[in-house]
Amino acid sequence: CCSPVMTTTQRQRFVAESCFDYLNLVMADTIFETSERSEVAISKMELLGFRVGQKLIEKYTLDKLRFGEKIDIIKFICREFWTTLFQKQVDSLRTNRKGVYVLSDNKFHWITSLSAENAAKTKQLAEKYLVFPCGLIKGALDVLGVPCSVKAEITTVPQCTFTITLKPGQ
Amino acid sequence: GMSRYNTNLQQVANNTWNKIDKINTELFTLTYGAIVVQLLKDFDSVDDVNNQLEKMGYNIGLRLIDEFLARSGLGRCRDLRETAEVIAKVGFKMFLGFAGTVLKMNAKKGSFHLVLEDNPLIDFVELPAQYKDTLIYNNILCGVIRGALEMVQMKVKCTVKKCPLKGHDVTQIKVVLIEHLTSEIPVGDEF
């Protein structure tokens, strides 16, 4: 099955990558600092990511009929979608063939600039900043007809995994 | 004279832009738009939202100045006019991909205006009518300038004077120098 082409109907425009890096950082800080509890902040951040993920996919012309299986959609996320966001593809994809997919990124760009006093603190920090990309993936997959939940985990900075669990009945 | 200096700045700007890693504007623009929407939900007054956007920008500016100085290789500006030109020609180009211009330079009053004809931050954005008069969508840029200049010992106040979202033809920000600071490090995030 041919891999779908992601083309944009709008003229391509660019900004410095660091613009988004800075925005990502202060966005998480602001939402966490202005929310009553961290669970509230986390759910806001995920929703933010979800909406942006939906809009990003909607902006691209996709021939959805060319997606044969669910795995093709997941591969699209790992390749074209990841490249659009992070200028690289996911490094590895594993699945249990029962609706769980684990994406590993060995050098997840948005956390490479994070540092903390110790490994435990770095992990905590990174989890705060990973809620948004989880939402992005979830939103993209939602538009592609694959409702799911997405969780991220830091193995060792800057390596992290995103676990996509398809909703039952998929 | 001034024109050779400006050409030099343009070269610095183009060189840094050519070397810097770039992303599609959309992710940046859509994310910022989503943040604005969220803040409008979270805060009762649009003024509070405007302040949050400015603070976010301030916290970006505190960090961004290091990257700016490192990449541009530019040294200390000799006067306010140079500062204005550097922000317009190099700062905007390096990060947003488009250089700006300086208007209404007034060394005596210590103020200038920065004009951006092309502002990626507002791509495809439409303000709902209820916010057209009150929301300062570009306020994050005011904060970035304020934070960055504070790190080089200048305390400034920035206000958005014109914005295409309100029907103007350009984005225009007025910068007023309030005072030069001593070499004390600012406290950082302010809340």
The best one-word shape of chain B is: globular
Q: Please bin the fraction of helical residues of chain A.
A: 40-55%
- Total helices of chain A: the number is 5
Helix/strand order of chain B: HEHHHEEHEE
Q: Quote the average pLDDT of chain A.
A: 85
Topology as H/E string of chain A?
A: EEHHEHEEHHEE
Helical segment tally of chain B? 5
Terminal residue distance of chain B: 44 Å
E-strand count of chain A: 7
- Main interface pair? A-B, 35 and 36 residues
Q: How would you classify the helix and strand content of chain B by structural class?
A: alpha+beta
Helix content of chain B: 40-55%
What fraction of residues of chain B sit in β-strands?
Answer: 15-25%
What structural class is derived from the secondary structure elements of chain A?
alpha+beta
Would you tell me the overall average pLDDT of chain B?
93
Which secondary structure elements does this structure contain, and how are they paired or packed?
The complex is a heterodimer of chains A (170) and B (191).
Chain A: E1 7-8, E2 14-16, H1 17-33, H2 38-58, E3 60-61, H3 70-86, E4 92-95, E5 100-105, H4 109-112, H5 119-143, E6 148-154, E7 160-166
Antiparallel strand pairs in A: 1-3, 4-5, 5-7, 6-7
Chain B: H1 2-19, E1 22-24, H2 25-42, H3 46-72, H4 80-96, E2 101-106, E3 111-116, H5 139-150, E4 154-162, E5 171-180
Helix pairs in contact in B: 1-4, 3-5
Question: What features would you describe in this structure?
Answer:
The complex is a heterodimer of chains A (170) and B (191). Chain A is built from 5 helices and 7 strands. Chain A is an alpha+beta fold and 170 residues long. In chain A, a hairpin with a 5-residue loop joins strand 6 and strand 7. In chain A, helix 1 packs antiparallel against helix 2 and helix 2 (38-58) crosses helix 5 (119-143). The longest helix of chain A has 25 residues, at 119-143. In chain B, helix 1 packs parallel to helix 4 (80-96) and helix 3 (46-72) crosses helix 5. The mean pLDDT of chain B is 93. Chain B has helices spanning 2-19, 25-42, 46-72, 80-96, 139-150, and strands spanning 22-24, 101-106, 111-116, 154-162, 171-180. In chain B, a hairpin with a 4-residue loop joins strand 2 (101-106) and strand 3. Chain B has 191 residues and is of the alpha+beta class. A 4-stranded antiparallel beta sheet of chain B has the order 2-3-5-4. The chains are: A alpha+beta (170), B alpha+beta (191). The A-B interface holds A 8, 10, 12-20, 22-27, 29-31, 33-35, 44, 47-48, 51-52, 55-56, 59, 84-85, 87, 132 and B 17, 20-28, 30-32, 34-35, 37-39, 42, 52, 55-56, 59-60, 63-64, 67, 94-97, 120, 123-124, 189, 191. Strand 2 (14-16) of chain A pairs antiparallel with strand 1 (22-24) of chain B.
